[in-house]
Design brief:
12 strands; eight-stranded antiparallel β-sheet; rod-shaped; alpha+beta
Length: 194
């Protein structure tokens, strides 16, 4: 027999090492795919929660000073349950406004020249207002809040355009995004919004 090239078989240890490398690559790809899928699902759920249940909003303007400042970032709770004194966010002409609920459907609202607010002929206690003012009011007072709506006002009464003006009017329930719960920015003012 002539001597032909002999093919050498690799040693058993080399085969086992190569097999282990291939198994490792397969496990690595599987873990990477699983992690990427989990991150996409978590991000989608976070976006849905932020959009539907807990919208995050940035305050723009001074109509809610002293309660909220320009550029504060707040979290709202998407719910239909709000009462007098709650701060709500609502849609108005492709914008989002933030104001305080003063009266609900059926209530009578009256405001005197000094800016004192009366609901059903009782003075409304408003510790959150520092400077009372009648403001930009072009509605006939006393005013009855229509069914399915609420009467809102900004805390900075002299500058706020709100339900006292027919340009905004009363807010219908389907326009409400939610009740402002929490200020998250700036960090030194982090906390529940009253």
């Amino acid at each position: 027999m002539s001597e032909e090239k002999k093919t050498e078989l690799p040693e058993l240890e080399l085969l086992e090492a190569e097999l282990e490398r291939e198994r490792y690559k397969k496990r690595y790809r599987s873990v990477l795919r699983s992690t990427a899928f989990s991150l996409v699902v978590v991000a989608a759920v976070a976006v849905l929660i932020a959009m539907l249940l807990l919208p995050v909003l940035q305050i723009s303007g001074t109509s809610m000073t002293d309660s909220l400042q320009d550029e504060d970032i707040v979290v709202a709770l998407n719910s239909s349950g709000y009462k007098t004194g709650d701060i709500i966010a609502f849609y108005y002409n492709n914008n989002i406004l933030v104001k305080r609920v003063i009266a609900s459907a059926g209530d009578w609202v009256d405001i005197d020249e000094e800016g004192n607010v009366y609901i059903n002929e009782e003075l409304l206690e408003e510790p959150y207002v520092t400077d009372k003012a009648l403001g930009d009011c072009n509605i006939t007072l006393p005013y009855q809040v229509p069914e399915g709506r609420c009467f809102v006002m900004g805390d900075h009464r002299a500058t706020s355009i709100d339900s006292r003006n027919t340009a905004v009017g009363c807010v219908s329930n389907d326009m409400v995004i939610g009740r402002i719960l929490l200020r998250v920015w700036p960090l030194e003012a982090f906390g529940v919004v009253n």
